[in-house]
Every structure is written in C-alpha cells, then in structure tokens.
Amino acid sequence: MATTTPARDGHPNGATNDATNGAAPSHPVSKRFSDIPGTIEVPVQEDDDFINVEIDLNNLVDDPTELCDMFENEHTARLYWMTIALAYAKQNKTDRAIEVLNRGSNAMQDTTPLEKLSLISCVCWMYLRKSREAPRVAPEGTLLSEAKTKDHYLQLATSSLNEASRINPAFPPLFLARGVLQLLKASLQLPSKAAAAGGSIDQAKADLLKGALKSFEQASKVSQGKNMLALMGKARALYGLSNYKDALATYQDILLKTPDLVDPDPRIGIGCCLWQLGYKDDAKQAWVRSMELNPESKALILLGLYYLDASSRVPTHSPDFIKLYKKAMTEYTQKSFKIDKNQPLTCATFAGYFLSSKNLSHVESLANKAIQYTDVNAIASDGWYLLAKKEHYSGNVETATDYYRRADEARGGLERGYLPAKFGVAQLSVLNNDIGESKLRLEKIIQPAGKHERNYEAMILLGTLYAEEVFVNQFAATKEDKSAEMRKAIEYLEQVRTAWKDPKKNLSPDSSILLNLARLYENSQPEKALQCLLQVEQLELDQIPASEHPDGIEDASELRIALRKHLPPQLLNNIGCFYSQAEKHDRATEMFQAALSSCMRIGEKGEDMDTDALVTTISFNLGRSYESQGLTDQAVEVYEQLIARHDDYTDAQARLAYIKLRKTPGKEGPDAVAKLYQANSADLEVRALYGWYLGRVYSRKRPANVNEDPELRHYKHTLQNYDKHDRYALIGMGNLYMMAAREMRRDTEQDKQKRSATYTRAVEFFDKALQLDSKNAYAAQGIAIALIEDRKDYSNALPIFLKVRETIKDANVYINIGHTYAELRQFSKAIENYEIALSKEGKNNDSGILACLGRTWLNRGRHERNLEAFKTALSYANKALGVSPEQVHFKFNVAFVQIQLVQHIMNVPEAQRSLVQLEEAMEGLEAAIVTLDEVAQHPQPPYPKVDVEQRANMARNTQRKQLGRHIESQKEYEEKNKEKIAAVLEKRQAEAKRREEERQQALAKEKERQDKIRKEREEMAAKERERDEARQAEEEAELTTDEETGEKVKRKRKAKPRAEDQSKGRSQRKKKAKRDEEEESDGDGQPKKKRRLAKKDNKQYKSAEIVVDSSDEAGDDDALERAERAIENRSSPVSDIDAGSHADAADDRMDVDEIANQDDDEEEQTATRTTSKRARRDRVLDDSDEEDEEDGVRDPPKVGEDDEADAADTSMAEAGNDNEEEE
Questions:
Q1: d(CA 863, CA 933)
Q2: pLDDT at 1169
Q3: How far apart are CA 961 and CA 958, in angstroms?
Q4: DSSP 397
Q5: Residue 208 to residues 34, 191, 653, 1099: CA-CA distances in angstroms?
Q6: In angstroms, rounded to a whole number, what is the distance separating the alpha carbons of residues 130 and 156?
Q7: 768 vs 162, 430, 740, 1068, 1192, CA distance in Å?
Q8: What is the dihedral of CA 465, 471, 477, 478, to 10 degrees?
Q9: Contact by Cβ (8 Å): 900, 870
Q10: Do residues 965 and 1090 lie in contact, with contact meaning Cβ atoms separated by under 8 Å?
Q11: I want to staple 840 with a disulfide (CB 3.0 to 4.6 A). Which of 182, 648, 714, 811 is the partner?
C-alpha cells in the first residue's frame, strides 16, 4: 500500500500568508485543494518487492506521459490517479489534469464501471473549469470547428456527465456537477429579441436555471443540508431567476452555518442581492467584510462599482465627484486588475475609464478580455459597447455599427436590448446624414419609457434634430410647414429642462439645449426665449472661478454686472436684442455695453477670435438702443465711430441721415438723405428710407392721380428694377392705394365702384407681401383696414387686428382696435384699447386719441343713459382741446358734448338729478353758445357755417329756455322734498356703507374658502399617497414564491366548500328580501337608493384651478375679484353691452368648458356675432400735419400711420346724428 508523507509545515497546503512558522491563521482561508498533500509516495514493484517512490506534487513535470506510463504499468490504484490530476489542477494545469484522468480511466477498462466513476466525474469538473477560462467567442482567424470556446468545453462536460450518469445516475457528486453545468449554460444563453412574458427572463434561460435549482436541491438533500456548495449553487440559481429575497436568505443561511467559508464567499452573494433590492449601503458593508477576510476577494471590483455609482449621483464639477471617482478607480479597480488581469468585470470597468480619458489604445485589449472571459451577457454587452464607442471616436462608422449591434443583441436586441447601444446607432445615423433613420430609432427608444424612466439623452438628440430641421427651413428658399417639428422639438427639450429641477435625476443643465429653445421661441414667444438666454447667462456666471471675481464688491447685482465681461459677447448681444424687443431699452443698453466690454477683454487676452465683426454689430445695436431711449447724441456718437472704422457701413449712415432729418427737416436732413440715396441707390434699406422720406415730403400735396405720386413711383421702380419681392415697397404701395381710395368721391354708384377697385388694388399688394411672409403683421393690418373702410366688415377685420396686436407694439394698432369695437358698440373694450394706445411712448397727450375717447364715452353715455359717462366725454374733449387749442374741430367737439349733456339731463327724472347738476349744465350751455359762435366765424369751420349758426341759435333760443324751466322745476321739487331728499341721501350713504361691509365680508369668506380648499387638497393628496402605499403593501403581501419558477406570483385563494357557499347565498337572499320589504314600508317619501354594480375607483377627482388670460372684465379675475365684482353689480342696473345684443343673450353665454379661452378668442367670437348697424359719416379731423413717430428704417410702413387722423374719426357730430336718429 502507498503511504503519504506529512504535509509541509504542518499544513496541508503548506504555510499561508498569515500562518508562518506554524502559527494559526488570523482569518479564514480558502479550502480549495486543501486535501492535496505536498508529496505522495506511490508503491512500485521492483523484483519481488515494493518500494515507495516519492512524488513532489508541488513541482510536477510539465509532461505527465512518463508518470502515466508508470501508473499504467504498475496498475496504480484510482486514488493516485485522482491525486496527481488534482495536483495539476491546483497548479492551474487543467489540460494536464484532464490528460491524467483520461489515461487513468482508460487504464481501468478491465475494472468495474463503478471504479472509474470518480475519474469520469472529475473529468466533467475539469471541463467545467476549462469553460470558465475559455474565450466566449472564437478568436479571429480560427475555424469554428477547431475553436475551443466556452460552449465547446460545456459540450465535453455534458458528454462526461452523461457517461457518468449511465454508470450511476444517483452518484452524489453528479447532482452538483449537473447544477453547475446548467448554471453555466444559462449564463451563455443569449436573450431572445422579443420581450419575455411576465418578466425579464427568457423561457429557455429560466428552464435551465430551474433545472440547476432542482439539481442543487437534490445534492443538498443527499448531504442532509451539509453540502454548502450545493446551497451556494441554489442561491446562485435563485439570483439568476431574479428571486433576490430568497437568494439572500439562502446566502445568509450558508454564512450562518459556515462563517469561515471564503472561497466561494457568500458575502459577495449577500452584497449582490442587497444591491438588487436597493440596499446599496448594506451591500457595500457585505463586500467590505469580504475584503477584510480575503484582501484578494472579487469584492474589490464590486466596491469600485459602488463608488462609481455614487459618483454618478453628484454633479461632475463637484469636488465630491472627483473624490468618489478617484477612489473607485485607484483604490479598488486598479488593485483588482493587478490581482487578476483577466477578470472580465475589472477589464470592462478599466476600459470605460480609458475611453472617458480618450486613451483608446488600451480600450480594445481590455474590452476584448471582458468579452472573451465573461459568463455574464451584460458584461459581454458592455465590452462590445466599449469597442463600438472606441470605433465611433475613431470615425470607423461601419465597424462601430457592427459592435453596437452586438452589444444590443447581447442584451436581447429589438424591443429589449441595450439602450446606449441603440442610442449609439442613432448617432451614427446622424453622422451618415440619415436623419430619418436616426429619428425613427430615437422615437423607439423614447416610446417604451415610462414617466419615471425617461431616456433624456435620446430626448436631447431627437429634440435637437427636430430643431435643426426648423432652423434649416427658416433659411430655405422654399419654406415648408415645420410647425409639427417645432412642437416636437420644444416638447422634448422642455421635458429635459424640467428634469433638471428634480435632484433625484441628477441632470446638469446644458447650455446648448437652452440656446436651441431660445431659437425655437424667438419668433413666437420671445419672452420665453429671453428666459432661456438668461438661464444660460447664469450657467456661464456660475462657471467663472472665484479667482476671477473682483475684490470689494459685495452687492449681488453689482457683482453680476462686473462678471459679465467674462461671458461670450454673442450671448450678451442676443439678450440685449430681446430686451430691446420687449421695449426694456435700459436693460438692453446695459447688455450691449457688457458685450462690448467682453469683446475688449477677448482682444486684450489675444484669443484667436475676430472681434471686429462682433464689435461692429453690437455697437450698431447699442446706437439703436440709445435712440429708443431718446439719447440721440450718444447714438450719433456711436454711429460716427462706426463710420470712422468702416466708411462703407450703410446701416449706420442711414441712421445718421434719419436722425438729421428728424432734427433739421428743413435743409441738413433732406440733404443727408439725398446724399445717402445717391451713393447707395441700389441698397434696399436706403431705398426704404428714401421712400419714407418722399412720403413725408409729399404728405400735404398728394397728386390727384395716385400713379403720379413720387413715393409710389419710387416703390414701383424698386420692385421693377431691384427686387420684385421687396416687402417694404409692396406694403408702401398698398398704403398709398388705400390712402387714395380713402379720398375718392362716393356720390354715384360709379364713384363707389372706382373707390372699391382702388381698395382691391391695395389689398393685392398686401396679399403679395403676406405670400412672401405669412407673419407680416403690417400687411395683415392693411387688409383689415381695407375690409373696414371698403366693406364695413368689422367682424372679419377685428380678429386680424387682435393677431396683429401680438406682433406690432404700436399705438396705431390699439387705435384701430378701438375704432372697430366702437363701431360694434362694445364701448368698454373700445375705451380700454384707446387707453392702452394713450399709454404708449409719445402718445401721452395725443389729441386724436383723446378725441376718440371723448367720442366713445359720449356714445356710451347715450347708450347707457349715464350722466357720468357724459361728464367723462366732456373731460376728454377738453383735454384734446387743451393739447391742440388751435384745432377748431376740437372746440366744436367740446360745445357739442356740452349741448348733448344738457339734452340728456333734461330727460332725467327730478328724483335722479340735482339742482347743482342743472346749474353746471347751464354754465356749459352758455359756454357752448359762445364756442359755436366762434367756430361759425372761423375761416375753415368743420361743418358749413349755416349749420353751425343754426345749432348755436337753437341752443340760445330753445335749449336755454327749456333748461331754465327745468332749473325752476328742480328748485321747487327740492324745496318741497327737502326732508325726503336728505333721508334718501342718508339712506344711500348707509347703503353704500353696507355694500362695502358686505364686500369685505365676501372677500374674507372667499379667502377662507380658498384656504379651506387648499388644505382639503393637501389632505386628499396625503390620503391618496397613504392609500397607494397601503395598496402596494397589500399587493406585496399577496405575492408568494412559485416553487417551480422561483418567481413572485399572486397568492391563490382557497375555494370554499360548495355547500357552505350555497347556504350562505340563501341566507343573503333572505336578508335582501327582508331589506326590500322594509324599504317599501317606509313610504313614497323615501325613494330607493339604486347602487350601480361597478367597481369602485379610488381616483379622486380634483377641480382644476382655471387661469384665464383675458383683458375682458369677466376674463382674468381671480376668486376674490369675482366676489368683489358680484357685490358691485348689485348696484349697477345698467350694462355696457349693446342693446342690440340682448336678443342674442342666449348665444353670448359661454359654456363651462370654454371658460379658459383666451381673451382674443372671446373677442373674435363677439366680433363675429355682432354686425355693424350704421356706416361712418363724413370725416372731420385731418391730422395729416402731425409728425410721424416712426423711427425704423427697414421696418415695413405702418398701415394708416401717416393718415392717423383719417383712421381715427374724432368728430363728435356723428354722435349727435345718432342721437337724433334714435330719438
């Protein structure tokens, strides 16, 4: 018999790192190959005796042929074959171990099959070991039939396992081997391209894992639960089935039974289960403990991934990010790589680091190692993805596409797969200019994602692609409708922008997204574009290091101004332009000045940037901003400096000529314009300015034939010889034809037709301008004015004016809207628009607008029979006269209103007027008589002299006497009813006080109600969250583990016995019948409650707070204002709605669903329903000598601006005619 010598140093494996000189180890050590001695003595026959030949198992020869020949010749026992093979395996010479085992198995052909069963079983284990070390795919240049891949060795292991099973299928080690074999096959099982039903595990892989689970349970049962490796396999199978809770329990059970087990280490499994369950810090503690017991544990790389994950949850510019990332890579990943350079997870992690640092030379080798040596599909997918990114960076599109495809397929592909790989393919499609394919792929990435799983990178790229389509279309010769693309671009980019506010998503704001949004909002919503640019400004300011901050500035606003010179000048210039567009010229000036400072800083630093063009553009914008602020001298200085630097800068020359023309219209201004025109007659901007100049020169002496007008001939020359699509010239010609039509006679039918044809000609020019630019507000306004003046079509013109109002920030637009509302008898809205026009810059004391307000208040007073409205009308008439006392028609207007007030107050009952009011009316009448006499003597009276004298005589002879009698009657009435009047006055005061108290109470109640509603909503939201949590807990409680699959399934309820159900049903039917009888006996007064047989829904229907953006009185009030108005309306018996609209009151009521409509829509509907009942009469006011306040050079001419007095009929005589007609 063979005997073995003692092990070295008293340990089976020799001394360990922590057990030198015979000392006991300080921590658990690996027991793998612990039963293999250092030497073995093999009995060998020599002559007739046996001698022991000692073999050093720590220094075995590389070629075991001689050793195997000796064992065959000596018919050595199975134990020695096994020991030698395992000694080779211990030294990682697995091929030699397999050779020894196969020779031993062949040498025992003559023995019983059971004798070689252990050898065959050991061969199976060796093949399983080789599978772990073999490459995943065949190396390049190797035939598939010759490649020794993982699958090749698994097939050999399967063959050995089947051979052993035929000998004895109940051999205990075979259960464990079969389980490991199925685990390895499951790890190599590629995911199917279709999503698995009921979970994320494919059926084929699930079947393999279930088979492995069954094998491990059999192995554990045979060993009566003492085989820890069987339990480890069971836990691994449960983990593969995503049954992390049961896997965790199994790993913990193993650790409880064998706390010194470190190879394999259950602590690593415990950490992985905790990680998947969301307890990442607990997972870290488990891996740290594994490291403490075994410094070379695979937990090293897992801890590195923990810190990488932690770094991903902090901003990249944060110091914490650098700290966490450095710790992950240097302390853990690098150390793990030094221990095992072929560890797949370590190689993949290191390759990702080199890829991020653009060190592409190391990426390929590390990624290939990760692909070749891993048993996990996800790691192989990561390897292919890293190779794809490396080729992507290198510009190898075809190779990168192939690698992206492999990375995607390794995780399932198609509907499943790897989103970063899908995103990479979409990026490559963009590089190939296949935008349609890229958008299709990105849409597929975004669609499956729920609200909490949005792929924001895909949204950014897709939104940017749609935005680029919109931007390209803006500069295309033939424009297409890209509204859908713009809507999608804004939707996707705004979703990303909203996600920045969620700290859980840890997304950093991106300036490029904000800049794209600003360009998308530029035309439709400039205020939102400005917000985006201001956010970009803040991001840029935040990135300025503290070392660049100036000393001694503590105020935040001052510091912001000082730091702006470090920002890009293009950004500051754009912000200034939006401020200028919003008429915030002081802020615009501040931005333009900061942009110039930024250009100076760039020039001082010597950066490689041509700032001359930037300085020129920004300086011109600064000059325009100075002009808007009225700082003409500063603007002139800026323009002169520009011309000194660039003497051919036509825009600056045009602005200087315009300023000179405004300052000195006599000589120097016209000369400057003429000189500019001669030098740049082909420049369309200069031609536009010259056309505007001609319009001012010939405004007082227009020729009778419009075709002979110099301004029109100039525009016609521009269209014929320079640019037939010049929109300024087209709109200018439309304006001239419309002005000519306005002055035409309309006495006969032929005159009317000729006049209408001229309006049609004007509309043709406006329409052509709209065809070239569908958003040209000036052309649209011209069409609206033509509709009113030619056809009296107020209903169709009003919506156009309302749309124009959104673009043209000019008083004339509001004046036109006011005219339209006045004609539609919507006096409140007319007054509102006139007042807005009056508030515009330069229009504070505009006599024309004041006269329009007076006329509208007069018509409103007549319509409502309201004395206060007449007084307001008189006030505005006096204001207009005060602004332009030389205008005789304003004098006539004051006298006319005074006479109308007298006529109204004489019709008021004695109880509703006072003696003081009558006496004031008498004073006004006397003043009106004097004024009419003066107007009649004027060389150019607004009406025929005879008519004015007749009106003065009627006031002098008739109305004076009538009013005198009313004064005497009022004196007698007040003397007789003095006490009653005092009582009524006191009662009115008390009533007013009571209404004010009620108003305050209503406001307080409304505020209390709003607070109550808010609290109720908060409580409802809290209850809803509690119900959701309870429901989720109940659902989890109802889940149980399927014994076969290991998956979580709903617990099945046990069926009740049939007899019990039947008896219970009969009992319930009896109770129901009894309840029905009792309900019937209650009488008819209590109707039955019918219960709908439907499932109850836990959703809470919450009332939405409706915010109405409306300029109408009933449109934009909040709840408090509505309550206040409701109280005031109780004491307002008269409405400002047209009397003719009462018949349509039912149609005018708004549905509840339409309450949130915008004011413009409401105004358009109102204008559509209401029709004009009367036409305008002769115009009195002619303000053609009023200076035009237009200050733009290239802006299209404003329709009706030069003839504002014609568009704004300020005569009060028309109101008088209306009065006479209605009476």
A1: 29
A2: 40
A3: 5
A4: H
A5: 31, 13, 84, 43
A6: 10
A7: 88, 38, 19, 81, 22
A8: 60
A9: yes
A10: no
A11: 811
For the record, the structure tokens of 194 come out as 């279709």
CB 236 within 8 A of CB 254: no
Scanning 94-168, the segments in alpha helix (DSSP H) are 94-107, 117-133, 150-167
Distance of CA 1117 to the CA centre of its chain: 29
Which pLDDT does position 190 carry in this prediction? Answer: 77
The C-alpha torsion from 586 through 590 and 592 to 596, rounded to 10°, is: 150
Bridge partners for 40 per DSSP: 55
163: its two tokens: 């051979």
Distance from the Cα of residue 284 to its chain's centroid: 37
Q: How far is CA 946 from CA 934, 951, 1182, 1210, 1215, in A?
A: 13, 9, 21, 22, 20
d(CA 875, CA 894) in angstroms, rounded, equals 9
Q: Residue 40 phi/psi, 5° resolution?
A: -145, 140
- HEC-encoded secondary structure of 1076-1087: HHHHHHCCCCCC
CA distances, 66 to each of 56, 73, 82, 103, 476 (Å)? 15, 11, 16, 11, 85
Sign of the dihedral defined by the CA atoms of residues 664, 666, 667, 673, in that order: positive
Taking a C-beta distance cutoff of 8 angstroms, is the pair 945, 936 a contact? yes
Burial of 960 (0-12, 13-18, 19+ CB in 10 A): middle
The identity of residue 290, as a single letter, is S
Place of tokens 């690996």: 30
Q: Are 778 and 1196 a contacting pair, CB within 8 Å?
A: yes
pLDDT tens for each residue of 192-232: 655 444 446 778 888 999 999 999 999 999 988 889 999 99
Q: Which of 845, 790, 797 is nearest to 818 (CA)?
A: 797
Cβ atoms of 370 and 353 closer than 8 Å? no
Say what the pLDDT of residue 50 is: 76
Rounded CA-CA distance 714/710 in Å is 6
Q: Where does residue 586 rank: exposed (0-12), middle (13-18), buried (19+ CB within 10 A)?
A: exposed
Q: For the packed helices 299-311 and 319-326, what is the interaxial angle rounded to 10 degrees? A: 170
Query: 741 with 759: CB under 8 angstroms?
Result: yes
Nearest CA to 296 out of 257, 272, 268, 324 is that of: 268
Could you give the C-alpha distances from 587 to 567, 580, 591, 597, in angstroms and in order? Answer: 16, 8, 6, 15
Q: How is residue 842 written in tokens?
A: 């330069």
> Which residues, given as ranges, of the chain have pLDDT below 70?
1-27, 47, 140-146, 192-200, 448-453, 606-608, 1032, 1035-1223
**Exposed, middle or buried: residue 1184 (CB in 10 Å: 0-12, 13-18, 19+)?**
middle
Cα atoms in the 13 Å half-sphere on the side-chain side of 601: 15
Nearest to 272 by CA among 303, 294, 293: 303
* Sign of the dihedral defined by the CA atoms of residues 560, 562, 568, 573, in that order: positive
pLDDT reported for residue 216: 93
How many other CB atoms sit within 10 Å of the CB of residue 554?
Answer: 6
Instruction: State residue 131 phi and psi, 5-degree precision.
Output: -65, -40
Burial class (CB in 10 A: 0-12, 13-18, 19+), 266: buried
Residue type for position 659? I
DSSP structure class, residue 1096: -
Q: Most distant CA pair in the chain: distance in Å?
A: 169
DSSP assignments along 544-595, one per residue:
S-GGGSPTT---HHHHHHHHGGGS-HHHHHHHHHHHHHTT-HHHHHHHHHHH
By C-alpha distance, which of 956, 1129, 912 is closest to 904?
912
For residue 1133, the tally of other CB atoms under 10 A from its CB is: 7
| Tokens, residue 798 | 């009003």
Q: What does pTM read for this prediction?
A: 0.65
Q: Tokens 């914008």 correspond to what residue?
A: 621
Residue of 187, 123, 200 whose CA lies nearest to 150: 187
Q: Which residue has the tokens 């400005």?
A: 530
pLDDT at 1028: 75
Give CA–CA dist 901/913, Å, rounded.
Answer: 13
